[in-house]
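Hi V.,

You were right to ask for the full record rather than a summary. Here it is.
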Amino acid sequence: MPKLASFTGAIDYPLMNDYMFRSVMQSNKNVLKELLCFLLHLDPANVREVQILNPIELGKKISDKEFILDIKILMNNNTVINLEMQMNNQYNWPERSLIYLSRLFDSLNAGEAYKTVKPAFQIGILNFTPFPEHSEFFSTYKMMNIKNYYKYSEKYIIHVLDLTQIHLADREDKDHDLDKWAKLFRALAWEDFKMISEGNKSMQEAGETLFTLNRDDRIRDLCEAREDYRRTWEGVKLEMDELKLSNKEKTAVIEEKDTAITEFESLNEKKDTLIASLEAQAAELQLRLQSN
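Predicted structure:
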């Protein structure tokens, strides 16, 4: 396998490409294990095994079923995890993540006791902020009592790593190298990748796997297909934003005209009132003149 130190230039398909991310994690279980340990704050020594429950045939055309490239993982045979790299904001992440987690949590077989249900974690690595009013780099959501904050269960948890908010990484995030992993996902040149991964064996191993897969024509074709999808979605989003802006501008013009009409009508009312007052005063003066 080539060594990371010799890689230079642009990374054609970085880890932010969801198909490449899927390919690297499926091709290198050690990298997948290390990433999960960083995300879940686990000691790697306590993670004996990670098993991908929905492997795909790498290089094969993506079917409709595989179009969403989430990775379902069984860890230590007692915890199920859904891991996904999501680049496009389709404005449905909260609902989508809940559905993924609910499906994952519903894992009991016939005859099994409720108590034995496996813990389920949903991990979203996002290139957008799901809650702009509450921006955070790495966030964790659990079910809890809204009055006393007592946690309902530790078996049903959602984690979000927001790649656009690396600057908000706190001390705990940095202690677990989550800021470095986020920068690694966003790295577009090998020089940056090498600098970020320096001294971290699992990150360097990810780089070597990434380099190898970038040289596989079948993988490259599917990464390009995902890029085409991303560009198409971004184009549609841009058109939608432009339409919204156009509608706002039209609404502003209409509101401005409505305001002008209202002001004109108000002036007319004031004019009519003034005319009525003047007519009344004139009539009163005429009566006084006639009486004199």
